[in-house]
Amino acid sequence: MEFNIAVLAGDGIGPEVMDSALEVFHKVTANSTHTFKLTKANVGGAAIDVEGEALPASTLSLCENSDAILFGSVGGPKWENLPADKQPERAALLPLRKHFELFANLRPAIIYPELKDASPLRSDLVKNGLDILILRELTGDVYFGQPKGRSGSGMEEEAFDTMKYKRYEIERIAKIAFEAARKRKKIVHSIDKANVLTTMVLWREVVTEVHKAYSDVTLHHQYVDNASMQLIKNPSQFDVVLCPNMFGDILSDEASQITGSIGMLASASMGAPESRWGKPGYSFGLYEPSGGSAPDIAGKGIANPVAQILSMAMMLRYSFKMEAEAVRVESAVRSVISAGARTSDLLMGNPNAKSVNTKEITQLIVNQL
């Protein structure tokens, strides 16, 4: 097969960690029977500076004619004074998700046993490691619900967003959660706020109905406030965590912090299998690290590239059906971490670890391959 990949590095540390991911990509695919064409394009603040908008028509066209998008990060202080709807995050990433109907966001939150000291949780809670899959609905909820806006003036001025879900939107993400659980520990925690929000009453009802076809999977309903506490108190109870958009955004960031560093967490944003994007029989997706652009360390060469590298591995798995290559990358990362290499964000609690920079840890991973 011949595959096209849109490479959108973006802002801040995006270009640095993207270079690392591409170096690992070229190594692991060197002997593949597939061929790949990687095309870079501007997005986010970098695109605003050059082309005047965060998601230029040329970048969107490139993505439409690609089989996957490998995304870096966007945003930073330089563009914070722009109108809200022109800022990189809102004007680039959210439109990409909506345009390509990428409704399912998969965020593995993994603590390697070797990194338990980097976690802010007590060691007895994570001594055996941790492996949670946060499954976040990505194209509904208050982020996209209409109407939204501002009106009035003075003391009567108000702002409003609309939390809204349709039945089919809940059904499709719930099915993905139960299918994923079948390949793991067969446990799903569905997160809602059904005791307060009407939208979440529907969410709970529909998830319960979908569960009837998955009797081999255990379903737990949990209010979001309790879930946020339980992630800290007893994280090992979770396997697949099914979340509406806003709650998933918050809980996945919380989960990333209990792993020790957001620089370790990858993500994949996927659409329906029958999507019109990408090649028939393959899954179009957008793959990005869970962290941000980290402008405070951009250009210093110390950023942790592992999340970007693991996002690339998810691309191999989900968009190109290259499971063996994905496992090789993940195993290489584990081996390097097990051997004691740590970027600066992972040094907490382990002063004897070997401190390495972005290029050094990338080379160690390449060497493992």
Question: What's this model, at a glance?
Answer:
By secondary structure, the chain is α/β, with parallel strands linked by helices. It has twelve helices and 14 strands.
**Whole-number mean pLDDT:** 93
Gross geometry = globular
Order of strands, main sheet, comes to 2-1-3-12-11-4-5-10-8-9
CATH architecture term of the largest domain? 3-Layer(aba) Sandwich
Q: Can you give the helix content as a percent range? A: 25-40%
Give the radius of gyration: 20 Å
Main sheet properties = 10 strands, mixed
Q: Ends: how far apart? A: 23 Å
The number of domains: 2
Q: How would you describe the overall organization of this protein?
A:
This protein has about 375 residues and is α/β, with parallel strands linked by helices. It has 2 domains: about 1-105 and about 265-369, Isopropylmalate Dehydrogenase, CATH 3.40.718; about 120-260, Isopropylmalate Dehydrogenase (3-Layer(aba) Sandwich), CATH 3.40.718. The chain is built from 12 helices and 14 strands. The protein has helices spanning about 15-30, 45-50, 55-65, 90-100, 125, 165-180, 200-210, 225-235, 245-260, 305-320, 325-340, 360-369, and strands at about 1-10, 35-40, 70-75, 105-110, 130-135, 150, 160, 185-190, 220-225, 240-245, 265-270, 285-290, 340, 355. Strands 2-1-3-12-11-4-5-10-8-9 form a 10-stranded mixed sheet, sandwiched between helices. A two-stranded antiparallel sheet has the order 6-7. Helix 1 links the parallel strand 1 and strand 2. Helix 1 (about 15-30) packs across helix 10 (about 305-320), helix 1 (about 15-30) packs parallel to helix 12 (about 360-369) and helix 11 (about 325-340) crosses helix 12. The radius of gyration is 20 Å and the shape is globular. It starts with a strand and ends with a helix. The mean pLDDT is about 95.
